[in-house]
Write a structure and sequence with these properties.
Layout lengths: L1 H22 L19 H5 L3 E2 L6 E2 L7
Antiparallel strand pairs: 1-2
Length: 67
């Protein structure tokens, strides 16, 4: 009888744990989330999607080369 009780308790625990995991509000971060306001960096510079210069010496738009 105690084995049957332990099995029921384990199944109940697994169901409750599964329900908790399924209902947590996990939101994925978007790639541009750090660039959104109140950030003061412009979107073009923050995303680094545009480059200038000839390969292999390219820099993201808005960046300055220095050595």
């Amino acid at each position: 009888m105690s084995s049957n009780h332990a099995l029921h308790r384990t199944v109940l625990f697994a169901l409750v744990l599964g329900a908790l995991v399924a209902t947590t509000g996990v939101h994925s971060a978007q790639a541009s989330a750090p660039c959104d306001p109140p950030n003061v960096i412009s979107q073009e510079v923050c995303d680094m999607d545009s480059f200038y210069g000839s390969p292999p010496r390219q820099l993201p738009v808005g960046w300055n080369a220095f050595v």
